[in-house]
Design goal:
By secondary structure, this protein is an alpha/beta fold. The chain has 2 domains: 152 residues, Medium-chain alcohol dehydrogenases, catalytic domain (Quinone Oxidoreductase, Chain A, domain 1, Alpha-Beta Complex); 142 residues, NAD(P)-binding Rossmann-like Domain (Rossmann fold). It contains 13 helices and 15 strands. Strands 3, 4, 5, 6, 7, 14 and 15 form a 7-stranded mixed beta sheet that branches. Strands 10-9-8-11-12-13 form a 6-stranded parallel beta sheet, sandwiched between helices. α10 links the parallel β12 and β13. It is globular and about 60 Å long. It starts with a strand and ends with a strand. The structure holds NADP nicotinamide-adenine-dinucleotide phosphate. The site of NADP nicotinamide-adenine-dinucleotide phosphate (NAP) has 26 residues, from α2, α5 and α6.
């Protein structure tokens, strides 16, 4: 089978190689999935560069999420239940950028047949992060303002649409003016281009006296630091990405005054939740993808052989939507 492997830690377009491998066999409690498609997410590329939560292993296969069909199962009841089903493939060990992936049966999720493959490919990482951060950790309520940094990302657009659905207001920050009409059309309440004026002044002009209670930031660096300073004294910010690769600079006075800042990582968050809660989460994600709230904007498609072009496209500014590897 064809599989994308890491030949060294470094620039994705140089170190990711498409090679031939033998097709893996599922062991006890495992399933083998014939992969249909898998997205290229920022986490895949951070891992390749050695800047992710886990250290990359040279020779390992990549790809954390995707869609496929369970084709063969090892001994075990859950695997038998999954046999033949189309599933979202939540591959915590990576390896979905391959024609076949073997993983534990409890890491595949059967999905309703009306959801298209390209949506099931991105079923989990961004939609689950959006719901857990907004509804569970921050507890954003109807009428509240939420500041959404890097709002033009796939995840940022989901936040805007969830705001329309749940009745909270979004103050969105982008780095390119060209994104404003698109985000407004999705339902953004306010969109501002970063770096033009003091963010704190802009925020207080928009949000008013009550101040900004909630913010989410995947950028860090100067941009994320300005977001933190624009919070009200009882505000709460979640940092969920490192797009700028720069550290945050935060005034200790802001912390002493009561502002809170916290990291969010879906991998750790999900481990702490009971299975029944995760099953409800998967149901809610299906419902909201169908409703056009947590759907992923489609971007360019590539085959496994085209991995070098695909990873460049995945980080191109203005790519429009999620880059997808189409596998079978
Ligand atoms: N912590 C978690 O568990 C978790 C889970 C899911 C996602 N995430 C994070 O969420 C973020 C968005 O993911 P995604 O899949 O939605 O990404 P995506 O669709 O690939 O979009 C990336 C966006 O980031 C913007 N961007 C890139 N570098 C930037 C910078 N230095 N400053 C400001 N904006 C920048 C791009 O803006 P342009 O359009 O202007 O190029 C683009 O809109 C990523 O950081 C990802 O790692 C974290």
């Amino acid at each position: 089978m064809k599989s994308i492997v890491l030949s060294a830690v470094g620039e994705p377009s140089e170190v990711l190689k498409c090679i031939d491998k033998s097709i893996p066999e599922p062991g006890r409690g495992q399933v083998r999935v014939r992969m249909i498609a898998s997205p290229i997410n920022p986490s895949d590329l951070m891992l390749t560069r050695g800047r992710y939560m886990v250290k990359p292993e040279v020779g390992s296969s990549l790809g954390y999420e995707g869609v496929g069909v369970v084709e063969k199962v090892g001994p075990g009841l859950l695997g038998k239940y999954m046999a033949g089903k189309r599933v979202a493939v939540l591959n915590a060990a990576g390896g979905n950028w391959s024609e076949y992936a073997v993983l534990p049966a409890n890491r595949v999720v059967p999905v309703p047949s009306d959801l298209p493959d390209e949506q099931v490919a991105s079923f989990f990482v961004n939609p689950a992060t959006v719901l857990c951060m907004v509804r569970e950790v921050l507890g954003v309520r109807r009428g509240d303002w939420l500041l959404n940094n890097a709002a033009g990302s796939s995840l940022g657009k989901m936040i805007i649409k969830l705001g329309k659905r749940d009745g909270f207001k979004t103050l969105n920050i982008v780095r390119r003016e060209a994104l404003i009409p698109e985000l407004k059309a999705l339902g953004a309440d306010e969109v501002v281009v970063e770096g033009r004026e003091s963010l704190a002044e802009l925020v207080s002009g928009i949000v008013g006296k009550s101040g900004l209670k909630h913010a989410i930031d995947p950028v860090a660096g100067a941009s994320g630091s300005a977001v933190f300073e624009s919070l009200a004294s009882d505000g709460h910010m979640l940092v969920y990405g490192t797009l700028s690769s720069d550290p945050l600079t935060i005034s200790p006075r802001s912390l002493i005054s009561g502002k809170r800042i916290e990291g969010f990582y879906l991998g750790h968050y999900m481990q702490r939740r009971p299975m029944w809660k995760n099953l409800l989460l998967f149901k809610e994600i299906s419902r909201l993808i169908r409703a056009g709230v947590l759907d992923t904007p489609p971007g360019p498609r590539f085959t496994l052989d085209q991995i070098a072009q695909a990873v460049v496209a995945a980080e191109a500014s203005g790519k429009g939507g999620k880059v997808l590897l189409t596998i079978s």
